[in-house]
Structures are given as structure tokens and as C-alpha cells.
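Q: For a teaching session next week I want to show students how multiple molecules come together into a single three-dimensional assembly. I've collected the sequence lines for a complex. Could you give me the predicted C-alpha cells for the whole thing so I can convert them for display?
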Amino acid sequence: MARAVHSMIRVLDEARSCTFYETAFGLTVADRLDFDSFTLIYLSNAESGFELELTVNKGRDTPYDLGDGYGHLAVSVADVDAEHARLTAAGLGPRKLVDFRNGDTLVARFFFIADPDGYQIEVIQRGGRFA
Amino acid sequence: MARAVHSMIRVLDEARSCTFYETAFGLTVADRLDFDSFTLIYLSNAESGFELELTVNKGRDTPYDLGDGYGHLAVSVADVDAEHARLTAAGLGPRKLVDFRNGDTLVARFFFIADPDGYQIEVIQRGGRFA
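A: Of course. Below is the structure for the complete assembly, covering every listed component.
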């Protein structure tokens, strides 16, 4: 059966993105494959076998069009309030913490944060569906 | 530490997408949350804790702009040739199988397939980086 292994996004600046993903989520470079016209960088951490793949197209300097279809990558954390405070202190500008309800039921407590290219990442309190 | 838990895409037709993801990847509805203006559907299978979240915005009937930034979700399979044949027979139109090399090194054997909204999914032979 198919197993989810990674999600790929195109980014402009390898170093800038790697710094962000390490600072924000502890994701570091597990592999890096350099080709003539592009570079692939696989980011992972000890929490999951699922990786984030960055594609850097050499010579591209205009921002990517993020469209309105793709939404976000979501990560769970053990203490979303502490992470929000840490990322605020790090100057990464997380958006406000939200208690997301469906009627009276708390679905999730989360915030969004944008990476250097503008991709949104949802940071969710770990538990239930968001293990 | 942050743990990757899902990726979210916006889709037009819930039933059409659910049928595709179940047929193609064995992903079924783990949870479904209905709100006034949108529905969230979480798809998963037994291979991974990582889920695909579909957002259906009610009343939206124009295709989403997929842009050129987001790339794809990747899944690994035990036998990529067999999966290619199965998905071809199912009429899902996978693109051709590719041996992707970096110089003399085989990086991956894979194909791409598009979901009903045009999102690309990479199907990779399981092994090495793509466990």
C-alpha cells in the first residue's frame, strides 16, 4: 500500500529556507542532491519518517506563485503555547493562537506561520487526530 | 519537537477526490468535520500516521489556481511497476515510469499521477531515502 514519504515545495533561497525550517521545526538536511539546473534538499527530524523536500531551481529569482489550491503542511507539537512564544521571540512572526471549534467541540489549538517563500505551516497542539 | 502530521489541499468535489485517493493509494476517510462554509476530510491508511487533509469550500465551483510553487505529495510503494500497471488499468492515466539518475546513480524510480483537481502525486519505488 502507498505510504506518504514527503511533500515537495519550490523555494528561492536554500540557506534561508534551511535556517527557517531548522529554527522553527528542528528539520535538518538529511540529503542534498545537486543537478545542473536544480538542487533537491530533503529535510527531516527524529519525530517522523515524513520529509519535506525543497527544490531550488538555479537562476530563478522571481517569487513562486503559490496559488490558492495548496493549503499547508501541518506539524504537531507537545506545547503549542510554548512554541508560539519561542517562535515569536525568534522573530519569525507566527500568527495568533486560535482555538478552533466545531460547535462546542474543540477541534484544535493552533497557529500558522509562514516560511520565507510564503508557504503556510500549521502548528497544532499534539493530541487526538493530531498525534 | 515538531512532527509532520498532515498536508492540506483544497479540492472542488469531495466524492470525486475521495474515490481517487482510495483507488490510487488506499487512503480512506479517517475523519470528516462539517462546518457552515466548508468541510474538512482527513484521509489516511495503515502505512503511515501522516494524513492528507482535503478542504472543500462550499459553493466554490471554479478550479483552484495551483500556481508553480507547491510541487507534490510523494508516496512510496513496494512495486512501482505493478502500481503503474494497476493505475493505468484503472483509467487514472499515470504518466510514464522514469528512472531518475544523478550521474550514474539511480536516485529513484517513479511516476507522477494527477488527482482530480490537478495536484501531482509522485509514486516512488520504496527503498533507501524513500522508505
